[in-house]
Design a protein that fits this description.
Radius of gyration: 22 Å
Number of helices: 9
Helix content: over 70%
Shape: globular
Number of strands: 0
Distance between the termini: 5 Å
Length: 248
């Protein structure tokens, strides 16, 4: 079924207009927001042990869906941990499938370069002059790889939210890799998409001050910032008429 109408949300398919106040306030409008944020903070903390990442990812998936449906209280409950874990697995898998190649490819190139330059210096009799040239060339390779890696990561961080939206709404792991459709979603909603990411960055900055709440507050605040992103992306998806037709 298409996303249902709701009096507190813009009509499905109508151009999205993210409201700063609504995006930052929506979580606190939920009567159980303290409980939900504290539990989210707990699972964010458990992310250090990896397992918490799956629960938070599953929660984000459900929040994107509920936001896209225009629900008045989009924050999901924490009463279905098994379901949240199961829905988080594809998200984590898709993230790793995108990120690992960016890490492994430069690492392999770096190792190969070190072997080649080291072998060349060795064959040249290990003279100080040759060693210096080889060292300088290896440094240039490292700097180049670092620059390419950072640019690729920035591009990926810009792309991944769209992959998350389509994976969440279609409930298909493969949707995260349909890069043409994901990029088309970004192009159709570029302004609001950038706004959703911008709001998330602001929320992440604000979340750093959670340390004022005796350190423990950092984790609920970090979880809240992720919820800001999920809510914003869901609202952008709700305003995409083409995506609404595809999901229907």
């Amino acid at each position: 079924m298409p996303f249902p109408e709701d009096r507190d949300a813009p009509p499905a398919g109508a151009p999205a207009t993210l409201d700063f106040a609504q995006v930052f306030r929506f979580a606190f409008d939920d009567p159980d927001w303290i409980k939900k944020m504290l539990l989210g903070g707990l699972f964010t903390l458990l992310g250090v042990l990896i397992v918490g990442v799956f629960f938070v990812s599953g929660y984000v998936v459900r929040l994107v869906r509920r936001s896209a449906k225009g629900e008045v209280r989009p924050l999901p409950e924490w009463d279905d941990l098994g379901g949240l874990f199961g829905e988080g697995v594809p998200v984590v898998g898709a993230y790793l499938a995108h990120v690992l190649p960016l890490v492994l490819v430069p690492l392999c190139v770096l190792i190969a370069s070190a072997v080649v330059f080291g072998g060349t210096a060795s064959l040249a009799g290990r003279s100080e002059e040759v060693a210096g040239v080889m060292g300088a060339m290896l440094s240039l390779v490292i700097l180049g790889l670092y620059a390419v890696f950072m640019l690729a990561m920035l591009a990926l961080m810009f792309y991944l939210p769209a992959a998350l939206v389509r994976l969440s709404l279609f409930s298909r792991f493969g949707a995260a890799f349909e890069w043409r459709d994901n990029l088309a979603f970004i192009r159709r909603n570029l302004g609001q998409y950038l706004l959703a990411i911008g709001f998330y960055l602001i929320a992440s900055f604000i979340a750093q001050f959670g340390v004022i709440l005796c350190f423990v507050g950092v984790f609920p605040a970090s979880f809240w910032s992720v919820c800001v992103l999920a809510f914003g992306l869901g609202r952008v998806a709700r305003g995409d008429a083409e995506l609404n037709r595809a999901v229907a």
